[in-house]
Predict the structure.
Amino acid sequence: MATATRPAPGSPSGASRGHERSEARERLLSTASALFYREGIRAVGVERILAEAPVTRATFYRHFPSKDELVLAYLRGVDAHIRAGTQAAIDAAPSPADALRAIGTAVADDLARPDFRGCAFLKAAAEYPDPDDPVRQVVLDHRAWYVATLTGLFAQVFGDSPRRGKPEHAALHFVMMRDGAMSGAHLDGADAVGAAFHRGVEGLLTLLH
């Protein structure tokens, strides 16, 4: 166990305890995140997490006062991962259109992962329907950022074209296609759905530009 152990001889006690707290927290979060994503948030109880981490109940509540706090940490971690990947795709792309293609490729690649179980945020939203729930708010904040990011890219793609469409419409269309791909890939096959999604992205870039 990472908790309740004494600092190693010669180590500053505060630094050692801080390291142990961080290690235990990360183990809890990593274990819970995998379980939440694979099996569902409400289906996984604290006892299951304690057994698989493994940590003591006291350690759990020292880092996360409630299961909901752990759920929030899980979703914020997913959010941070997606934001970082999206920004990396934008930074590496030679043009806004290529950035949108790269973001689309990341979506299609996700569909083909062996451990893919759908969109973590769509799954969480289905389990937390109350619009005032903090978990639901994290989902909404993530989607608002995603739509805003796509809207900015489409605005650059459309530019001052006389055929200019509404960037926000294109962004919402992209998200709608993404949601459909994330929900249907396990039924219709990742390859087929991924290819259809790529065609949809190209359609938005070609037909609306």
